[in-house]
């Protein structure tokens, strides 16, 4: 049996080895990420806010931009600090990011993939943006995420709900805070089964693009698991404005539920048509006919007016939440702009703070360092309970809200009521879930 | 049978809007020879006249309710429209029927906008090539829609039909079919009746009034009418105003069907232009007939049965391109359109 003898020389040697070992991840990170795209050299760091400033989602883009500007103000030490005060990580001190003042440039996605890529490229190449964030459409988000991967900058996605963003199209440089179609369906289906019963037949109208397809697939699977049947799934072109010819056949299809896998203007027009055709006043199969809108947005609900009353859906966040983070954000945003923030504003504000915090924790703006800091990061205080950025697909997992169009709104903002806060565990899924299969995260690209 | 009848109803309803816009387009082309790509914007402006009238009627006195709070914890604001304070029940009635009030308000406004548009801009392009006319009117349409977006935002703004005309009717029962077989929205039937009334009114105006006869004569031979000492330019300017009013009224009445947004003019413009081409450039009956025909075909193309049948033979869905397919066929087979004058677009 050997005897452990520790002398002064041995202690020093062991200490040096252990110290070097502990420092290894940092050294490796710093060394391998020394050069990267748009490394900030002066006293400022530039972020690129790529939102729809024209086109159908311009109002949503405007709200995102307001939230970005508020986040920048808070990061630079202005205002009341908003959710920086409630955020569980305490790295952000109000002195910019890594001591550099935060500045920003904006781009107009026009809700078109090519325009969004062009504006992101311009912000990266011309304006030196070290991070790109924004978007109000999954098609745009996926396109810009791919560009950021190639360019070697981080992409913090805004409002994008397609499973594909962190599914088959996921990228190592891309991160999504917003929830997705699967999570909406997983939260919504049990509530629908409880409210409307399990012996139901659904007719789906689905926007014919990536978000619509994945949303429909998710809600169909989740409701069929609860016992529902699916009468039909009709794809509607994204450019449709009058849905009467799609809605008209629904009543005679044998279905007693209409699921509108539509968002934005499509949702407003299809829901309006469905209500006009009197679907909600009818009885089919001995049951009241019902309409479901899986993804709600308060800004869009306003466009549909009183037609949203009593209709179930899901949302990422709502200003009426009473946790400390949500209250702080609503107070801060409301005092700045005079009205409550939308879910789009909330998610992009969170993304900006999360990016800044990751830079602080990583000690660098290097995309690979930032990605490493975000992967597996758990936090709270940003309005959705305890949240985790899953390392394997860069999807944020958090509580999901099931909402219903309010019957008696008290103001123009009071359109949705939260029916249930679905716990995160209920909406989680395996990394290799078939709905998210087909792509690889790849490795982070720091650019040049 | 029920499904086919429903799609015919949908088709004539869509066709009503196409026909009203196309009627104005072809009227302007027939009188002034101008291809007016800003005509869709006039449809959109009409819709926003309705939005504005609705907002004006709902200008409210604001009082604070100390017992309720807003989202920031301040006392909640209670809004009471002045018009209900001043006129009581009549004020409520005006708010409820604001779409029809808007029809009355829109007529002079739209005629005025049309006259200003023609005198201020378009008359300077009469002797320029059609390409120049298209460019300037298209540019004008973009400017107008951006102005509306700057004022009203990008999101659609919902407008309600009066309670009496909301909801749906059992159209099947009305024509002797089984109960609940053909349910149709009441306002869409109102829209169809309204469009028939407007189209009939325009035709009657052109057919049975001296003014209309002079305009028709001018459309046939502008020079000769001018030589008779008639100021045909002035009459054509008025006809531009009438065409603008027709498009505007179509927009006003469309607001309860789909919440208006700044882009709705563009959504209809291209389709309506195709309707004009299919109907025959400058032919008023052609524009109306083609509007209804293409509306019905478009509705049939979006039936699940048709979509499934097309998908079964491996072809993509045609519901959004059917109108263009028909236009291509018509232009190949009969370049002057269904009711166009011989020689028109056939050179």
Describe this protein's structure:
The complex is a heterodimer of chains A (448) and B (347). By secondary structure, chain A is α/β, with parallel strands linked by helices. Chain A has helices at 8-32, 58-75, 113-125, 138-151, 181-196, 210-225, 244-247, 265-276, 298-304, 324-337, 343-362, 367-374, 424-427, and strands spanning 44-51, 101-108, 131-134, 154-157, 174-176, 201-207, 229-236, 257-261, 283-284, 287-288, 290-295, 312-315, 378-379, 387-389, 396-397, 400-405, 416-422. Chain A folds into 2 domains: 44-179 and 319-398, Response regulator (Rossmann fold, 3-Layer(aba) Sandwich); 182-315, Response regulator (Rossmann fold), CATH 3.40.50.2300. In chain A, the strands form 4 sheets. Chain A has a 7-stranded mixed β-sheet, with helices on both faces. Chain A has a 5-stranded parallel β-sheet with strand order 2-1-3-4-5, with helices on both faces. Chain A has a 3-stranded antiparallel β-sheet with strand order 13-14-15, with no helix packed on it. In chain A, helix 2 links the parallel strand 1 (44-51) and strand 2 (101-108). With 347 residues, chain B is mainly alpha-helical. Chain B has one domain (2-333). Chain B is 67% helix and 7% strand. In chain B, 44% of the residues are buried. The chains are: A alpha/beta (448), B mainly alpha (347). At the A-B interface, strand 7, helix 7, helix 8, helix 9 and helix 10 of A face helix 1 and strand 4 of B.
């Amino acid at each position: 049996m050997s005897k452990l003898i520790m002398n002064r020389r041995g202690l020093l040697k062991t200490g040096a080895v252990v110290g070097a070992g502990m420092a290894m991840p940092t050294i490796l990170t710093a060394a391998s990420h020394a050069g990267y795209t748009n490394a900030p050299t002066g006293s400022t760091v530039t972020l690129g806010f790529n939102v729809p400033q024209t086109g159908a989602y311009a109002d949503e883009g405007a709200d995102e931009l307001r939230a970005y500007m508020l986040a920048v103000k808070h990061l630079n030490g202005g205002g009341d600090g908003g959710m920086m005060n409630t955020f569980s990580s305490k790295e952000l001190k109000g002195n910019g990011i890594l001591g550099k003042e935060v500045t920003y440039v904006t781009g107009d996605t026009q809700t078109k993939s090519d325009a969004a890529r062009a504006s992101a490229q311009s912000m990266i190449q011309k304006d030196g943006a070290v991070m790109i964030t924004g978007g109000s459409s999954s098609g745009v988000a996926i396109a810009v995420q791919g560009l950021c991967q190639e360019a070697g900058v981080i992409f913090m996605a805004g409002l994008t709900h397609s499973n594909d963003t962190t599914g088959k199209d996921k990228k190592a440089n891309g991160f999504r805070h917003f929830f997705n179609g699967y999570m909406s369906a997983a939260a919504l289906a049990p509530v629908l089964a409880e409210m409307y019963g399990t012996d139901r037949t659904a007719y789906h109208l689905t926007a014919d693009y990536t978000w619509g397809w994945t949303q429909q697939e998710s809600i169909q699977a989740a409701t069929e698991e609860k016992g529902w049947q699916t009468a039909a799934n009709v794809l509607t072109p994204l450019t449709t404005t009058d849905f009467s010819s799609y809605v008209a056949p629904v009543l005679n299809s044998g279905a007693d539920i209409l699921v509108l896998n539509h968002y934005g203007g499509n949702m407003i027009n299809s829901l309006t048509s469905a209500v006009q055709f009197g679907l909600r006043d009818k009885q089919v199969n001995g049951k009241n006919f019902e309409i479901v809108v899986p993804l709600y947005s308060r800004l869009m609900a306003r466009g549909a007016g009183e037609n949203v009353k009593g209709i179930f859906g899901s949302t990422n966040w709502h200003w009426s939440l009473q946790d400390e983070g949500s209250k702080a954000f609503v107070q801060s945003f409301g005092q700045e702009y005079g009205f409550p923030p939308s879910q789009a504003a909330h998610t992009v504000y969170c993304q900006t703070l999360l990016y800044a915090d990751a830079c602080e924790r990583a000690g660098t703006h290097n995309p690979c360092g930032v990605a490493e800091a975000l992967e597996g990061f758990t936090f709270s205080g940003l309005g959705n309970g305890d949240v985790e950025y899953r390392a394997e697909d860069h999807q944020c997992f958090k509580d999901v809200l099931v909402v219903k169009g309010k019957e008696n709104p008290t103001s123009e903002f009071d359109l949705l009521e939260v029916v249930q806060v679905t716990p995160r565990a209920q909406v989680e899924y395996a990394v290799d879930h078939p709905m998210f299969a087909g792509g690889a995260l790849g490795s982070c690209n720091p650019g040049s | 049978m029920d499904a086919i009848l429903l799609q015919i109803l949908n088709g004539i309803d869509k066709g009503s809007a196409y026909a009203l816009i196309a009627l104005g387009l072809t009227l302007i082309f027939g009188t002034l020879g101008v291809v007016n790509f800003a005509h869709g914007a006039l449809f959109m402006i009409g819709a926003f006249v309705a939005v504005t009238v609705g907002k004006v009627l709902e200008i409210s006195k604001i009082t604070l309710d100390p017992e309720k709070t807003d989202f920031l914890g301040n006392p909640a604001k209670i809004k009471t429209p002045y018009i209900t304070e001043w006129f009581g029940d009549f004020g409520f009635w005006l708010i409820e029927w604001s779409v029809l009030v808007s029809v009355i308000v829109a007529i002079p406004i739209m005629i005025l906008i049309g006259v200003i548009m023609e005198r201020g801009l378009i008359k300077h392009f009469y002797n320029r090539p059609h390409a120049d006319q298209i460019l300037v009117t298209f540019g004008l349409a973009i400017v107008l829609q951006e102005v509306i977006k700057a004022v009203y935002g990008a999101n659609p703004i919902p407008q309600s039909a009066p309670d009496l005309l909301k909801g749906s009717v059992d159209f099947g029962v009305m024509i002797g079919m089984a109960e609940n077989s053909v349910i149709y929205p009441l306002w869409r039937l109102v829209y169809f009746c309204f469009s028939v009334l407007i189209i009939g009114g325009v035709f009657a105006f052109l057919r049975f009034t001296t003014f209309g006869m002079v305009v028709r004569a001018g459309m046939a031979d502008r020079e000769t009418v001018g030589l008779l000492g008639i100021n045909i330019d002035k009459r054509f300017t008025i006809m531009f105003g009438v065409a603008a009013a027709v498009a505007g009224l179509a927009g006003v009445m469309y607001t309860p069907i789909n919440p208006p947004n700044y882009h709705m003019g563009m959504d209809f413009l291209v389709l309506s232009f195709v309707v004009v081409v299919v109907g025959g450039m400058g032919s008023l009956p052609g524009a109306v007939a083609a509007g209804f025909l293409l509306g019905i075909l478009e509705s049939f193309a979006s039936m699940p049965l048709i979509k499934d049948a097309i998908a079964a033979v491996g072809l993509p869905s045609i519901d959004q391109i059917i109108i263009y397919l028909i236009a291509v066929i018509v232009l190949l087979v009969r370049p002057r359109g269904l009711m166009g004058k011989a020689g028109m677009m056939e050179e």
